[in-house]
Amino acid sequence: MISAIVPVWNGREHLASLLDSLDAQTLRAGEILAIDNGSSDGAPELARDRGARVIAMGGNAGFAPAVNRGIREARGEWIAILNTDVKLAPDYLQTLAARAAATDAAFATGKIVSPAGALDGAFDLTTRAATTWRAGAGMADAPPFDCERAITSAPFTAVLVRSEVFRKIGLLEEIFESYLEDVDFGLRCAGGGVAGLYVPTARAVHIGSASLGRWHPEIVRRISRNQLWLARRHFPARYWWRVLVGQLLWGGVAVRHLTGWAWLRGKIQGAGAFNLKISAENELSLLDTHLRSNEQFIRNASPDLYWRLYFLLTGVAK
């Protein structure tokens, strides 16, 4: 059985579209859990009227705590984690479940596109800078993103995960609240030798940052903070130059979007938090191989100036 978990914070109209697409699935979820983060626009009432089980968090606890609550309550052997602002193709869940079963993948995600048809993102590739490229974001829906491939990090925009994976890897790290909690989970998968699958024949449309907007200062602050927490939790000290270069370059991007102060606040908060270091030596060895492979892919596939400058200043991914 598939348990669909939908964290909800307002966005009633988007939620209605998602529920329509869930009703149209060729392989339907056995249960839908709407985890309400304190909505005020009637979204929870809509979910309840449409047959979802609504679980109230009592306020806006963030994406990670809401997902974790849903995982604890879910009864299915498969967990579908879905943003409210996605619309799934009718065969999305069936395609992911079939390909994951055929390949024994621990989780699977499909090709996520924007309403205009460009790629919103395929899978996540984190580097030794503790910055992440959502592969293909903003690019044309074309190769190299038409090939099925093994992955270790999937966007939790619309992902299907075996419930047993959460028992092995653990739940989402709730201190991240929202943003990069799925990247942290992917790094733990990489360190633990857990692999998933990117299935481009499964498609979904994602509005993207529908609650606040892509470059809202609050989003930038949280991403900026959580990037440092990723580095502190998973990366050895020898990555320091790459982390410094990558973080400063990302700060430049934030300044260009008029959110430089939010970036700086995030870095101050990230530097002042408690130590999150947990990776063991065997995990670091697997993670290092994974991060180097990610950088090679990004160097070959991404046209972004950010990545060209990153590789110029840090050298070819070696």
What fraction, in percent, of the residue positions are helical? 40-55%
Q: Mind telling me the CATH superfamily name of the largest domain?
A: Spore Coat Polysaccharide Biosynthesis Protein SpsA, Chain A
Report the principal-axis shape.
globular
Number of helices: 11
The total of beta strands comes to 12
Nearest-angstrom radius of gyration?
19 Å
Structural class designation: alpha/beta
What is the CATH architecture assignment of the largest domain?
Alpha-Beta Complex
Domain count: the total is 2
Strand content: 15-25%
Mean pLDDT: 92
CATH topology of the largest domain: Spore Coat Polysaccharide Biosynthesis Protein SpsA, Chain A
Q: Can you summarize the main beta sheet?
A: 10 strands, mixed
Pick out the low-confidence regions.
none
The helix/strand order is EHEHEHEEHEEEEEEHHEHHHHH
How far is the N terminus from the C terminus?
A: 43 Å
CATH C-level name of the largest domain: Alpha Beta
Can you walk me through this structure?
By secondary structure, the protein is of the alpha/beta class. It folds into 2 domains: 2-206, Spore Coat Polysaccharide Biosynthesis Protein SpsA, Chain A; 217-314, no CATH class. Helices cover 44% and strands 19% of the residues. It has 11 helices and 12 strands. Strands 1, 2, 3, 4, 5, 6, 7, 10, 11 and 12 form a 10-stranded mixed beta sheet that branches. A two-stranded antiparallel sheet has the order 8-9. Strand 6 (107-113) and strand 7 (119-121) form a beta hairpin.
